Amino acid sequence: MYGFRKSDGLIFPCQSRDVCRLENGSTNEYLLHDRSIEEFLKTIEPQYNQAVTELKTGRPSRNAIYVVAGFASYVTSCSPTAMRLGADPLRSSVKATAKILDRQGKISRAPEELGQRSTSNLIDSGEVLIDIDEKYLQAIGITQILDRLGIWANSAWDLIHNEHQANPFFTSDFALAIEPSDDPRILNRLVPLTPDFAIRIRPSFNAKEHRKDFEFRRFRPRMVSARHKEVRNINESIARCAENLIFFRDRQNWVEPFLCKNKKYWIEPHTIEFPVERGFLNVSTMRIALKS
Fold first, then answer.
1. Considering Cα of 177, then 139, then 270, then 273, what sign does the dihedral take?
2. What 3-state class would DSSP assign to 157?
3. Ranges of H-type helices in 22-107
4. Among 23, 145, 166, 190, which residue's beta carbon has the most beta carbons within 10 A?
């Protein structure tokens, strides 16, 4: 396959082992067993090909649903993009907590060198920054991975077949893309599984109520034969949501201009802080935006 690096537009031939792993990337010292995610992956990786084959038929077994939902859950828990995106909501929560404690007089004012100003004032001015260890976010994601799997496996899925040989699906170092849903509170997830097959997970707002149902009784598949425009839109989302590396099978004439057009985008976290009577309400989401 070929890789495309968004940072400089370089295209290079590669194999998955060269680019699709980070040495000890899932080792996490915040967990009691720092490689505990490996036990989970043993139930996912060896069965990936069979699971995708079953999904393509539209009649997947419970295990096939588990494997693919588990793959998507892993990407959104352990990848560098997932850790970066998860830091913003936690940073906003720490910021809001500091302001509440400041109001209550439980945080002393700054020393004279900083004008004896309040913590709230220093945070709002940008003179005090809240730093989050992204590996801590990864640890949280790992502990919640089965809940996310249960939510997505009990959701509606589009099983998207791409019959346009000249326009295969891309994938990336964040092998998942986001797109708006019919409900503004929810984002759909696009997961390319092979060059000719992808899924769209369409969670409902109350899907989390069924996260412990590992019989996946609310799994609702729908077969979709993608038109050329939809394939293009999916590839655009995949390219824009990639952190830095995009992968593709065929180096056709249209690929490089298409990727260069979309290389300046990424997923960014977006948190809105609403003051309420006794504190703050933070609403966090993600969106595709131009990288500043």
1. positive
2. strand
3. 37-41, 48-57, 62-78, 80-103
4. 190
